[in-house]
Each structure stands twice: as C-alpha cells, then as structure tokens.
Amino acid sequence: MSASELTIVGASMSTFTRTIRMALDHLKVPYKVIQAFPHSAELKPYTPYGKVPVLLVPGRAKPMIESLVIRTYIDGTYGSNRLTPNDLESQLVVNYWISVVGDHVFKNLIFGIAKPRDYLEQKGATEQAIQEKIKPAMNLALRTLTNLNDALGDEHVGPYICGDQLTWADLYLYPPMADLYSLPEADLFKKTAPKVWRWYQHFEQLDLAKGTYDGTVAQQRSLL
After folding, report:
1. Alpha carbon distances (Å) from 181 to 6, 76, 110, 140
2. What is the CATH number that goes with domain 6-82?
3. pLDDT tens-place string over residues 103-139
C-alpha cells in the first residue's frame, strides 16, 4: 500500500461507508479499508462517537469523522464539480436528496422497516409476526417512498438524479435503497415508487455498485 493512500475505517454493511467508497472509486482515488463495526472496539481508537465511516488521511494528525466532513474533504481535494455540480440549482437538488436520505429514508424505512425485520428474523419470529410488528410503520414508509418518487418529477429523464451527471445525491440514496430492495417488501416498494426503481435499476449496473456489493445487507440477504 502507498504511504499516501487514504484509509476508510468502516463496515461493508454500512450504507454511509459504501457511499464514501463509491465516491473514491468514481474519482479513481486509491484507498484501503479497515473493517470496523459501529461502536466496536476496533473503531474506538478513531472516533469517540462510534459512527462509521472514518477517513484516515496521510499527513493529517486526526482521523476525519462524520460523512459531511469527509464529503467536503473529497470535494475540496479531488474537484468539487465532479460530484457536486457547479450550478446552484443542481447543488440545491443534491443537498435536498442527501438531507432526505438522512432524515427520512433512514428514519422511516431503514429504522422503521428494515432493522425491525432483521431483528425479528434473527430472533426466529414467524413471517406473520414480523408483518404484524412492522405494519404500524408501513404507511409512513410508503408515504416516504411516494415523496421520493414525486421529488424526481415528471420531467426527470436521468439516468442520474441530476440528469446526466452522477452526484453525491445518487451515492447517498443508492446504498439504503439496495438494502430495502433486498427485503420481502421489495415488490411493494418498487410499485410505490416506480421512478425511484427505474433510477435504481440503472445505478445497480455500474461498476461502483458492483464493486462495493460484498458484505452489504443486500448481499447477505441474497444468501438466505
């Protein structure tokens, strides 16, 4: 490994770790990965908050923590217009989608549906019991997907969220959607947000997606 190479400390199953990995892959920036789960002993030397990813940059005394900080560093170091558009309107769109992923996709879909399902499956619950448990959260989850679908707009032609340019918006949205589409509820999610599903189908064919697939929740569920 080169002494100037970046290091990502994170877990393959972490969607935010996957976002940063895909960004560096897209920019052709070499890096290595140290596997560490959130709040693990392996992670503790790098951050007091227990969150992944962490970016280790040669020449910087302190680890770089928080996805926003890492994203800002990548933009500033490797060319902001490559993942963050130059024009203000597109920048607003990118920031909107990043905010929605953090505030709504995770709260209403990942923590509302995916994580409770995973927990109950590991406890050996029946499918009927799982459906009953997640039913109260399903309406909000589907409403969130409908809002995502509407946000793409009737004029959206893609293939990316901001049209022809791959941006941070795509890199933030894809990992949690990959995990959600691996659930038994996937067909319902696809039907509820067909434009999101169409966008997803294009993105999953990219080398960025394929190269960061191993170890993800989606990959683990495919083995069940």
Report:
1. 31, 33, 11, 17
2. 3.40.30.10
3. 999 999 999 999 999 999 999 999 999 999 999 999 9
Structure tokens at 82: 């490559």
Asked if the 88-222 domain carries CATH number 3.30.110.40, the reply is no
Q: How far apart, in whole angstroms, are the C-alpha atoms of residue 97 and residue 103?
A: 10
- Token pair, residue 68, equals 């926003």
Name the residue ranges covered by the structural domains of the chain: 6-82, 88-222
In the block, residue with structure tokens 């933009």: 75
